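Readers of this paper often ask what the protein records in our data store actually look like. Such a record has a labelled line for the sequence and another for the backbone structure tokens. Nothing more is needed to write down the fold, since each code stands for a local backbone conformation. The remainder of this section carries one protein's record, kept here as part of the documentation.
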Amino acid sequence: MRLIVLAKLKRALALLAVILLLQLALSWPSAADEKPGQTAPAEEAIFKERVQPLLQKFCVRCHNADNMESGIRVDQLTAAMEDRQLPLWKGILKQVADGDMPPADKPQPTAEQHKLLTEWITRAMTAARSRPAPKNGSVRRLTVSQYRNTLRDLLGLSEDLTDALPPDGISKDGFANNGQTLLLSPLQVESYFDIAEKALDLCIVDENSKPVIQNFRMDFGASINPQPCPDNLVLGALNMLLNNADFVVTELKPTKPFEYQPFAMKTKHEFIEGYVGNDTIRAWKKFDSIYHSVFACVRGTPGYPKG
């Protein structure tokens, strides 16, 4: 049960780490930001020349900075019809259309002025509601080096876990932090999760879980092994394995001031494919030896190239 809870905690922390990194990325400005739509010049001219004077004449007297009846000001309204002002414009339209404003004991607009005011507000609100909403730009992820440095600063890790991430593209100016290329694909998101989980595995310690320690020694010398592995091991072309009798592998259990689980290398193997000379054979064969888990060879030319 504890392991399940710990696994869920790591997954949650990994999600938190990725979200934090995305928030850091989103805090960078983007060149893709767009400005909200503007009022058509004709409508703005009508507002300044005909609508605004009506508001000044019939509304501002009771709805200004010094005298805000019902907490409403109309002296700051503009033709831009900003989103935050739309509810106020809607209320003004309803009050004027229903004849509730101006009050009956105050000067009243003519029928022509009433029509002009209601029609202009209706047109302007329709245009404001149909204009495209401003965008915040595309999500700009961190570069690989920024992500690596962030993990180091947040978790104190010296290990580099970002090898699984593809390298960042370079702009024509030679920079790797071009916001237009730093997008997030689903595959990259999964890589971010995997790296975050690995980073948390290195940082979170389960006190009830014993660490696993592997320790072994290899001794070399001519005919040093009194009981060499009888199997003729073959790794492939160009390998230069040492003679089985010329090295000994000994698994050790070091003394530690804490409890741990010794890592034991696999000794029992079962293979279906092997070689006899240059021929490939397919038959199950069992082996019981640590020398199928550890081998020794000469590295480099003309030795086995991958050790």
Notes: The chain has three domains: 2-33+138-203, 41-130, 212-292. Residues 1-5, 26-37 have pLDDT under 50 and may be disordered. Helices lie at 2-26, 41-58, 86-98, 111-130, 144-155, 186-203.
